[in-house]
Amino acid sequence: MWIYEKKLQYPVRVSTCNPKLAKYLIEQYGGADGELAAALRYLNQRYTIPDKVIGLLTDIGTEELAHLEMIATMVYKLTKDATPEQLKEAGLDAHYVNHDRALFYHNAAGAPFTATYIQAKGDPIADLYEDIAAEEKARATYQWIINMSDDPDLNDGLRFLREREIIHAQRFREAVEMLKEERDQKKFF
Amino acid sequence: MKQVPKEYYELLEQIQTVDFALVELTLYLDTHPADYQAIQQFNQLAQRRKHLKKQFESAYGPLQQFGNSYSNYPWNWNDAPWPWQI
Q1: ipTM higher than 0.85?
Q2: A76: left (phi over 0), alpha (psi -120 to 50) or beta
């Protein structure tokens, strides 16, 4: 069961209305390596992973939901004061026609979110390697967005999220080692 | 899979009962913010929930994490059973 807490994990500030940056950021909302995909991927893998790493998948999956909320806050703040003209200039005209300023689970190119972004092999090593790869891809995406952004306030939040991807990848690597250790301890006669 | 005693299920059911009432009251109060009696009931149940949580956790380990529950040594958040294993 989940309980909502009325706060962000880390403060989200935005210097100026900037729909172009929002368009990039949507990649981390409804994209293949975005926060929604991450949360759904880890929480779904918990049932068939050894007990030793269920806690880790639960906690990282939960933290990803908090990151999803941070991305949504960024997109909202970057677009809430934009005129239709500004949205058009930022390449969000098609988004505006369909959704006005509402958020939608799609990637930066407008492709809607799909469950095919998520793998579930039922093999613990295969699943954890997928998770490590997903974290590294998300880290890279945050870096590319930071490189495209000239908003120092937004970048502060994005750097926090980038660092979390590094920690998550590190913990997943450790989980792989824990499982290998467990495997090697098993005695066969 | 770790076996859990009968009391585990009983205490858990008490928590689930109180929690369900709290979910219902939360949604109700979202649209009826001035119902004094409902708020009284809500606060009473919130207190009961705290008590039950303490009782459950001291016997069977943490219900929540990120600091919402205390831990024994060693870290016992990872301990089975998970909700889908009981």
Answers
A1: no
A2: alpha
A74: nearest Cα among A164, A158, A166, A165: A158
Entry pTM = 0.90
Retrieve residue A8's tokens: 């962000």
Angle at B79 between CA B74 and CA B85, to 5 degrees: 175
Using CA coordinates, name the residue in chain B closest to A9.
B66
Tokens, residue A183: 């495997």
For residues A157-181, average pLDDT? 96
Q: Under an 8 A CB cutoff, do A51 and B65 touch? A: no
How far, in Å, CA of B41 to CA of B44, rounded? 5
- Looking at the annotation, which residues of A are catalytic? 35, 64, 67, 135, 165, 168
* B71-81 mean pLDDT: 94
Cβ atoms of A35 and A134 within 8 Å: the answer is: no
Q: Who's near A88: CB < 8 A, 6+ residues apart?
A: A96
Phi–psi pair at A12, nearest 5 degrees: -110, 115
At A106 the three-state DSSP class reads strand
The closest of A158, A157, A154 to A16, measured between CA atoms, is: A154
Cα separation, A28 vs A37, whole angstroms: 9
All domains of chain A in start order, with CATH:
19-185 (1.20.1260.10)
Which residues in chain B have their CB less than 8 angstroms from residue A47's CB? 84
pLDDT for the residue numbered B7: 96
The chain B residue lying nearest A51, using CA atoms, is B80
